[in-house]
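Record passed on underneath.
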Amino acid sequence: MNDLPEDWVDWGFSRIRRKFKCDDYVDNEVKPLPSIEYWHIIRDAYKKEVDSSFTFDDLVPPTQGYRFNEAGGPPYYAKVSESKDRGLFASRDIQMGEIVHDGTKSDVIFPDAMAWRRFVLALPRRAACDVTEWSWTQRLEEGGPMKILMGINISSLMNMGTPKQINAVPKSSISSVFCATQDIKRRGRKFLRTMVFMKLDLILLAWANNVDSMQ
């Protein structure tokens, strides 16, 4: 584990990204697809810093996603696009309304902001910067507490998009199940989703000050 800064318990999202110089990483580096070894570094940190009893289902390797259904992984694969961005592309033709991602089978949930901070600060720079991009906050039930989540597999490479670009959305603001909003051809457009969750910085700072501003 990296040495923790003295005031780390008060750090928000932006302060963590400054520590790792993440803006330089995002703006100046062409990022390769995460390897199986890369995913294992992140998974090992999660088990060490967050939940030692957690078991990852390795029937489908994280480089291919997760166990989506009895047939295997989800209907997408990861690749670097012509614009050098990492993204997910349909591995078969998909019909509008079809479920394309099920976060209930993919995502890990952090018990609190402190656990998320410990986890990120235990990672090497590149992984830490990626994790700050791949984490989000969301309520999982109506009126429930805000949670921090992420997928430690290629599902995290689903990109954000503008309203006209989006082709995959959650069933509701409390759902982790995404459906296609249009027909998607195999190897066609990238999967692009909308961000319906509050910024991670807000919940980190609120929890650091023992303020439940998420209700």
About this structure: Helices lie at 13-19, 22-28, 36-49, 113-121, 125-134, 200-208. The two ends are 33 Å apart (CA to CA). Residues 195-199, 209-215 have pLDDT under 50 and may be disordered.
